[in-house]
């Protein structure tokens, strides 16, 4: 979604983002194309299926060259990644974004590392968990290739305010595969989750006395079995437009019930990206 150098060459191309009259490069980009086979539930993500997947973390200062993956993210321009604000609400913040990654234990899979030069949060509240969105600016432009591509943002009028209730979405990331003490996966895994109503979500989390209700800027998904888990924070909730055959970023993985990944009782909670488009336009120049 970003990057004047690369995007200047595609300004005249009809974009899936819409609003071609805007000068903001967020609108002038080819996006959401998958270079892998379509989703199969609960399995390893084939190389190239989700080329916008980012791993966010730090190089371990005590183990030379070891990359400590902490959160997920989604490439939206050739200079910007979206993730969750809570990933940066700690003393030792992630400082590196890895794109084109597959196996985090391998050093020869063509992944590229980018230093984080700026992080913008949108009034995130650690207490209420609302506005759990982080816009990351990379230290340099990304050169797109089949394994590194941006996802589309839901600027289309039928997507911008859509709550997606009943839709099957896809989640993907390097998070834990079991609960609660397992380690993260070496390779990205994917699963399908169904979006549920906010009332259903509020009913579930009201039982554990969240300090604030589930709000319109959030989505809830998951009816048991498949879910995001620890280490998936900040990663994408995908919506696949079957007519366009393009992926759109519907949500950002925010939180779930501690120790209850995949529970039918507690859906996963996501920041609804459509609620933050104006904020993104303002902050991506």
Automatic annotation (TrEMBL):
PROSITE patterns xrefs: TRYPSIN_DOM (PS50240), TRYPSIN_HIS (PS00134), TRYPSIN_SER (PS00135)
Annotated SUPFAM superfamilies: Trypsin-like serine proteases
Q: Which UniProt keywords apply?
A: Disulfide bond, Glycoprotein, Hydrolase, Protease, Serine protease, Signal
Signal sequence range: 1-16
**A single GO BP annotation from the record?**
proteolysis
Tell me the superkingdom of the source. Eukaryota
Q: A Pfam family in this protein? A: Trypsin
The GO terms describing molecular function are:
serine-type endopeptidase activity
Name the UniProt record assigns to this protein: Peptidase S1 domain-containing protein
Which organism is this protein's natural source? Answer: Meganyctiphanes norvegica (Northern krill)
**What taxonomic lineage is listed for the species of origin?**
Eukaryota, Metazoa, Ecdysozoa, Arthropoda, Crustacea
């Amino acid at each position: 979604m970003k990057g004047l150098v690369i995007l200047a060459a595609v300004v005249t191309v009809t974009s899936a983002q819409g609003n071609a009259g805007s000068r903001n490069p967020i609108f002038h980009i080819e996006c959401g194309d998958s270079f892998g086979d379509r989703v199969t539930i609960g399995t390893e993500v084939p190389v190239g299926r989700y080329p916008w997947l980012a791993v966010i973390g730090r190089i371990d200062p005590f183990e030379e060259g070891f990359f400590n993956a902490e959160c997920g993210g989604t490439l939206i321009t050739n200079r910007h990644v979206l993730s969750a604000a809570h990933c940066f609400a700690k003393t030792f913040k992630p400082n590196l974004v890895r794109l084109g990654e597959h196996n985090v234990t391998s050093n020869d899979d063509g992944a590229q590392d980018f230093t984080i030069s700026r992080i913008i949060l949108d009034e995130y509240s650690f207490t209420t968990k609302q506005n759990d969105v982080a816009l990351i600016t990379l230290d340099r432009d990304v050169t797109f290739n089949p394994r590194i591509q941006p996802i589309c943002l839901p600027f289309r009028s039928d997507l911008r305010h859509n709550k997606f209730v009943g839709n099957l979405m896809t989640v993907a990331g390097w998070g834990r595969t079991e609960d609660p003490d397992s380690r993260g996966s070496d390779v990205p895994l994917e699963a399908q989750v169904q979006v549920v109503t906010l009332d259903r979500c509020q009913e579930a989390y009201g039982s554990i006395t969240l300090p604030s209700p589930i709000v319109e800027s959030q989505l809830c998904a998951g009816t048991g079995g498949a879910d995001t888990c620890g280490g998936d924070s900040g990663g994408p909730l995908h919506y696949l437009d079957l007519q366009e055959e393009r992926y759109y970023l519907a949500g950002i993985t925010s939180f779930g019930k501690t120790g209850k990944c995949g529970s039918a009782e507690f859906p996963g909670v996501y920041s609804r990206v459509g609620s933050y488009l104006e904020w993104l336009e303002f902050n991506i120049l």
